[in-house]
Amino acid sequence: MNIIKKTALVSSVALSLLILAPANAHEPSTDKGSTITFKQVMQGLLVETKNITQGIILEDFKLIENAATAIVKHPKPAMSQRKKLMKALAAEVKVFKSFDHVVHGGAVKIAQAAKEQDMVGVISEYQKLITGCQSCHSIFKTRLSKALQ
Fold first, then answer.
1. Crossing angle for the helix pair 119-147 and 38-58, nearest 10 degrees?
2. Angle 56-58-59 (CA atoms, 0-180°, nearest 5)?
3. End-to-end alpha-carbon separation of the chain, Å?
4. What is the DSSP letter of 148?
5. Considering its fold, how many domains does the chain have in total?
6. For the chain, how are helix, strand and coil distributed in percent, rounded to 5?
7. From CA 85, how far away is CA 149, in angstroms rounded?
8. Which of 30, 65, 70, 120 could form a disulfide with 114 if both were Cys (CB 3.0 to 4.6 A apart)?
9. How far apart are CA 25 and CA 39, in angstroms?
């Protein structure tokens, strides 16, 4: 890719991240007394996923590692939100948790690969993480959005 196209692509991604990143999407929180909503958690995960993408494009392993670590350590939503989610999921809690494990495990592996400056490993695990996100969204997003209204 020539330098002009690469610069334009990177600039577009950076601008998109600045425009689309929600304010306070990743507020730190303790589990007890958390007031963070499930939507805020998802928005924070989106920001960090975008940061991984940017890190891949820029070949910035530190950005990738930091974003993946933030995914691993994301705050939990408020207990009231979690109760509503569990009620809406009913018998499908195990399926939902399996997607959570795919995403969490993928983020752990991405952070490790980034630490080792292994771009092939980063991209391989990133694809799994994205597949886990998309699979969960396709099955649960509409139902959980309604449950949390």
1. 160
2. 60
3. 46
4. T
5. 1
6. 80, 0, 20
7. 11
8. 65
9. 9
Read off the amino acid at residue 18.
Answer: L
Integer angstrom CA distances of residue 100 from 27, 57, 66, 145: 20, 25, 19, 17
The 10s digit of each residue's pLDDT in 64-101 is: 999 999 999 999 999 999 999 999 998 999 999 999 99
For the record, the structure tokens of 144 come out as 């959980």
Residue identified by tokens 């991209």 is 123
Alpha helices in 73-118 (DSSP H): 79-89, 93-115
Q: Which two tokens stand for residue 56?
A: 């891949």
Reported as a single tens digit per residue, the pLDDT across 31-40 is: 566 789 999 9
* Parent domain of 7: 3-147
Contact 64, 52 (CB under 8 A): yes
* Nearest CA-CA partner of 69 in 89, 86, 92, 52: 52
Q: What is the CATH number of the domain that holds 56?
A: 1.20.120.10
